[in-house]
């Protein structure tokens, strides 16, 4: 933490941008902790919350996009030969493959919250030639969700951000499921009129057919 504090003191927003970008290339960087601490700095008034959100999102998506194209253009032989230089071991790639078999493309979204997985989903998506549009839909929406949660932990909990961070990490998957359910309920309630209109229109078309 002392090292991260010093980096923010010296370089500000650049720490978040380049740190998250490099993390997704699989270089060691505590992305989640750094985002939570950046949120705390926003709480203290040292950094701007909207700017942190933008910088973290852009750094994350650029990093993910780079890994996708590396996997797409160079494939598994390149990863096996040179992956060790960025901690991309064959064992970790096999682990990611098993998670893909279990969760499919949705792993790209939820993989941000799974330690040791988010660094490899981009590479693997490229290796299996997943269409970029589909990859981007899951990767960019997941990145936004991930960034919002961890920066908000520091912003909302202020001096107690470290405790809140530990609790969230312990119950991450349960919290994500609950958050997704609450978001779905909110969106259904918020847009219930157009949803009902569309639903009635489809029912009407079926009856006519």
* Count of individual beta strands: 0
- Unreliable parts: none
Percent helix, as a range, is: over 70%
Compute the average pLDDT: 81
- The rough form would be described as globular
Give the end-to-end Cα distance, rounded to a whole number of Å: 64 Å
Beta percentage is under 5%
Helices and strands: which structural class?
Answer: mainly alpha
Order of helices and strands: HHHHHHHHHHH
Radius of gyration: 19 Å
Summarize the biggest pleated sheet: none
Helix count from the secondary structure assignment: 11
What would a concise description of this structure say?
It is globular, with a radius of gyration of 19 Å. It has helices at 2-11, 13-24, 31-43, 49-82, 90-103, 106-110, 118-127, 132-157, 161-170, 172-190, 192-208. Helices cover 81% and strands 0% of the residues.
How would you explain this protein's 3D organization?
The protein has 209 residues and is mainly alpha-helical. The chain is 81% helix and 0% strand. It starts with a helix and ends with a helix. The model has no long low-confidence stretch (mean pLDDT 81).
